[in-house]
Design goal:
By secondary structure, this protein is of the alpha/beta class. The chain contains 14 helices and 13 strands. It folds into 3 domains: about 55 residues, no CATH class; about 260 residues, 3-Layer(aba) Sandwich (Aspartate Aminotransferase, domain 2), CATH 3.40.640.10; about 100 residues, Aspartate Aminotransferase, domain 1 (Alpha-Beta Complex), CATH 3.90.1150.10. The longest helix is centred in the last third of the chain and has 37 residues.
């Protein structure tokens, strides 16, 4: 029976669509999915129920959730940060919340100006000259940066740190494999975690399109050799790509100051909730070289004037790079989205300003270092495992299994750190802990006390 709201569900129309795309049944669309993992039978979906019954059932399910005694000490790509009420108020306005991609500048000046301001703020934050109006997340921004580097240099290898985020590495490989680019990992110094400069010099060659670093790293330490890494990359004719946590730039030098050609990062800490892992906000910025700008993925919003020059206006610029113009020859397939997360980031950065961002970064660093010191004093614990400067995340190594420790913490109403045993088994029973402005001294002391009990 046809679906009341899906015109193409009418049998005759469905048959014509299938004939046009060359399939005999809907199952043909799932040909790439192995038969053994496909669901067989019918989903046992209860109902239908009246609205009040649905509400009661949902509330019952939600009631089974555990209530934590303090914010989670879990980061690893999405972090617990405070979102000011005014951020939610602004992004909740209908002008932003129901907005569409601003293809028609005459009716979307508000959204266009907001995204222009977002780009300007990202440039100021990263020390770069041009930013786009956002990507999906850090991982996809990295994938796009690698492909951009390949197009610009006509080379096919990307060098990345061994201790980078495994999730970002997986997405990077997914992006680069179709264009036959190779991803090679660089070793690290076992004492500091920093990139092994000698290994970098050995592996870089005439096929290296770019060298990528994360600063701070996935494991929380600050990469102190960024100037030397940039020099090695540029001497070999490669580009230098830097991945950042934007909050850290309240304290750390902006990548533009130490030779970055492309900057990517995760904008979720800038006024976006954790939301169980998404949606996220990919930061993407580069130098003001026209060749680079022409190869940038995503939308770029520019400022212009009316024909007579009497009024200022905002437009999508350099659109010939994009999918809706160039189709399969576009620099990227990132397409329609309203960039609501970028709006949140613009509001957040405007609220804090440079001084507020610095104070926030200092507060986070102070509390993270207090947590490292207190946890490191416990018997059978080492925190952190690398002797480098850390920002808001750090490693904690246990004599007990991380799974057992986390289970014990959760029983006490505390969410521990992310287990690294599968990602980096050579680090042993180690977890990645995160401390932000949401964690008070009392929260950290509560964690330490709970760990003491669990480790007895």
């Amino acid at each position: 029976m046809p679906h009341p709201y899906i015109p193409n569900s009418v049998a005759e129309i469905k048959e014509k669509v299938m004939e046009e795309i060359g399939i005999k049944s809907i199952d043909d669309l799932y040909a790439d999915i192995p038969v053994e993992v496909r669901f067989k039978g019918e989903l046992k979906v209860p109902g239908p129920y009246p609205e009040q019954e649905v509400k009661r059932r949902v509330e019952s399910l939600l009631g089974r959730n555990k209530r934590l005694r303090c914010p989670p000490f879990l980061g690893g790509g999405v972090w617990p940060h405070y979102v000011p009420a005014v951020v939610d108020e602004v992004v909740g306005r209908a002008e932003f919340l129901t907005s569409y991609t601003p293809y028609q500048p005459e009716i979307t000046q508000g959204m266009l100006q907001t995204l222009f301001e977002y780009q300007s703020l990202i440039c100021e934050l990263t020390g770069m000259e041009v930013a786009n109006s956002s990507m999906y997340d850090w991982a996809t921004a990295l994938g796009e940066a690698a492909r951009m580097a390949g197009r610009l240099t006509r080379r096919s290898t990307i060098l990345v740190p061994y201790l980078m985020s495994p999730n970002r590495l997986a997405v990077l490989r997914t992006y680069t494999e179709p264009v036959e680019m190779k991803v090679t990992q660089i070793d690290y110094d076992e004492a500091t975690g920093l990139i092994d400069l000698e290994d970098l010099k050995e592996k870089i060659n005439g096929e290296t399109a770019a060298v990528y670093v994360e600063n701070p790293s996935y494991l929380g330490f600050v990469e102190e050799n960024v100037d030397a890494i940039a020099e090695v990359a540029h001497d070999a004719g490669a580009l230098f790509i830097v991945g950042v946590d934007p909050i850290s730039l309240g304290l750390l030098r902006p990548p533009g100051d130490y030779g970055a050609d492309i900057v990517v990062g995760e904008g979720q800490p800038l006024g976006n909730h954790m939301n169980f892992g998404g949606p996220l906000l990919g930061i993407f910025a580069c130098r003001g070289d026209q060749r680079m700008i022409r190869q940038m993925p995503g939308r770029i919003i520019g400022m212009t004037t009316t024909v007579d020059g009497s009024e200022r206006g905002f437009v999508m610029t350099l659109q010939t790079r994009e999918q809706h113009i160039r189709r399969e020859r576009a620099t990227s397939n990132i397409c329609t989205n309203q960039a609501l997360c970028a709006v949140a980031a613009a509001v957040y950065l405007s609220l804090l300003g440079p001084n507020g961002l610095r104070e926030l970064a200092e507060l986070i660093t102070s509390r993270a270092h207090y947590a490292m010191r207190r946890i490191g004093e416990l018997t059978g614990v080492r925190a952190p495992i690398f002797s480098s400067y850390h920002f808001k995340e750090f490693t904690v190594s246990f004599e007990k299994s991380v799974e057992e420790v986390n289970r014990g913490l959760l029983a006490r109403g505390i969410h521990g750190g992310k287990s690294l045993i599968e990602e980096f088994p050579e680090l042993g029973e180690t977890a990645l802990y995160c401390v932000t402005e949401l964690h008070s001294k009392e929260d950290i002391d509560l964690l330490v006390s709970a760990l003491e009990e669990v480790l007895e």
